[in-house]
Design brief:
Length: 550
């Protein structure tokens, strides 16, 4: 980094003009004298400024040759000029301009003109150059120019057997996007509608900084289509049941289904193939995985510019609710996308006591463990009676439905908004006696209608977060998995379940909390950290927070 540069404004000193005033006086006097002389001459003889011209008698118009016809031919033979109107001969003396002798005033006119010329030359030569200081809108004492982080990248290679190439690129520090422009569709196809592919193309056109995100979403939707097919055919293709016949568990100690492992591999490969992923973190992976974006060696002879890969970090749960998949209950995929930067949220002593962790793993964790406020995109795919794809880029929530006949997601739920209050709550009431008192009181008020909205709610609970949140987004209401005596920190994972879903809910106009803290503000301390979660309409969540605060 460069040190800040300081620019100091210098005082302006006006030039001295008293020493050369005499030159202006002399010049002015010379000009005045010349003008007076010329004026006197003009008054005495007004015709002195132009030469006399020979005048012809005003009896007709003179024609230099002869007219057409017989008279003209005769005149041509005798070379005699004629009057055009009368045909009379003109004396030869009248055809020549007689010189007029110069009058005595011509000398005065020449002297006056010479004096004017000399006066102008003297004034222009002796006149001091005027230098005026630039006007400033306000006194400027100093300007501090902040240092700019610059990255210098040198790429070398061989264009052919005899030609080496070196390319140097200097890039300024990355600017964080403050917001995005929503895509505008002036025309749609009656047969296909607005596809997810076209939607992302328009997003990239409106927001050039998000062009690389287009390829990321192309890979995610391809993976979701593949997972939808696997779920639909799981019973036919023998992909139900536990992995390896039972005994296979993930890092959280949960038994893995066959589809857990398969879908994790599908989504992980799809993201890695984009060339835009730097780190990938999954529910089924013990630790974040760094992505190798090295290009094939065969590209080196043709591609001279280095690809800017590894810009994004992806976190995901490949098959949420997989314990229900064998029963045909709706399941889904949850994902979140972070932008890779140096904005590390970890404390300075985070890695103390972790001597067995190498530098690469520390770098992965620094890139991955970020609060939900750092998300640039989040969404889910729901595999149910239809396959739905719902996501946000930070400018509202849009829902798409898979048209299997053309293999495209079609925009069916634009700009989803969750109402401030609904009429459904989704929660596992079997744990009611294990909740803390504010949560018990809150759910009781929803069930009995003693809440602030004075309306009794209906209980609907699938047990699959994606299914329950999807219904909450469309119909309104409350979804929650609070802490209890068995799960003191809740059960849902912060990084790849709670934070991405909270991002969606907030972009739809709702809120998400643990009861005391906004979910999006919590920085993860571990990839698989769990948190209590309650989300829903803004009025409903405000009422819950007040109960916890009192």
């Amino acid at each position: 980094a460069m040190a800040p540069l300081t620019y100091q404004t210098q005082n302006q000193v006006p030039p001295a003009i008293g020493s050369q005033q005499w030159t202006l006086v002399v010049g002015a006097a010379t000009v005045v004298s010349g003008l007076l002389c010329a004026g006197w001459v003009f008054a005495a003889n007004p015709t002195a400024f132009y030469a006399p011209v020979a005048q012809l008698p005003a009896t007709g118009t003179l024609v230099g040759t002869v007219l057409q016809g017989s008279l003209g031919n005769a005149a041509r033979r005798q070379n005699v000029p004629v009057y055009a109107t009368q045909g009379n001969a003109i004396p030869e003396r009248l055809l020549q301009a007689e010189p007029t002798p110069a009058s005595g005033s011509s000398l005065a006119v020449g002297v006056g003109a010479a004096m004017l010329l000399i006066a102008s030359m003297v004034v222009n030569y002796l006149k001091p150059v005027s230098r005026q200081p630039s006007a400033l809108s306000a006194p400027l004492k100093a300007v501090l120019v902040p240092a700019v982080e610059r990255v210098v990248r040198l790429t070398t290679g061989m264009a052919d057997a005899r030609t080496s190439v070196a390319i140097m690129a200097v890039a300024s520090e990355k600017k964080k996007a403050v917001g995005i422009k929503s895509p505008v569709f002036n025309e749609t196809c009656d047969q296909t509608g607005i596809t997810l592919t076209r939607f992302m193309l328009e997003v990239a056109r409106a927001n050039p900084d998000l062009q690389e995100l287009e390829s990321v979403f192309a890979s995610i939707q391809t993976a979701c289509k593949t997972i939808a097919k696997l779920v639909k055919r799981s019973a036919i293709d023998g992909m139900t049941g536990l992995q390896a016949g039972g005994g296979a568990v993930n890092v959280q100690g949960e038994e893995q289904k066959k589809l857990d492992v398969i879908t994790n591999d599908v989504l992980k490969r799809a993201l890695r193939f984009t060339g835009r992923m730097g780190v990938i973190a999954s529910e089924e992976e013990d630790v974040p995985v760094e992505v190798d974006n090295t290009m094939d060696e065969s590209y080196g002879t043709d591609v001279l510019l280095e690809e800017s890969g590894g810009r994004y970090i992806s976190v995901f749960d490949p098959l949420d609710g997989s314990s229900n998949v064998d029963a045909g209950i709706p399941v889904g995929t949850i994902f979140g996308i972070f932008s890779e930067d140096d904005d590390c949220k970890l404390s300075d002593d985070f890695f103390d006591g972790k001597q067995n962790m190498n530098d690469a793993m520390k770098g992965c964790l620094r890139s991955t463990l970020k609060p939900g406020t750092s998300l640039v995109a989040a969404g889910y795919a729901l595999y149910s009676s239809a396959t739905h794809f719902v996501f946000t880029l930070g400018a509202g929530v849009n829902g798409f439905t898979l048209d299997e006949s053309i293999g495209e997601f079609i925009l069916t739920h634009p700009d989803i908004k969750i109402p401030p209050r609904g009429k459904i709550y989704s929660i596992n009431e079997a744990n009611r006696n294990n909740w803390d008192p504010p949560m018990q009181e809150y759910i009781e008020s929803l069930a009995t209608g003693t809440n602030r909205g004075k309306k009794a709610y209906t209980s609907r609970y699938i047990g699959s977060m994606v299914g329950d949140v999807h219904r909450t987004l469309l119909y309104g209401g409350v979804f929650g998995y609070p802490a209890d005596t068995k799960n003191l920190n809740g059960k849902l994972r912060l990084l790849y379940e709670a934070a991405p879903m909270s991002f969606l809910i907030e972009q739809a106009g709702g809120k998400s909390t643990t009861g005391l803290v906004r979910i999006m503000d919590i920085p993860p301390n571990d990839v698989h950290q769990r948190v209590p979660l309650v989300m829903g309409g803004s009025d409903e969540i405000d009422e819950l927070v007040e109960l916890y605060e009192t």
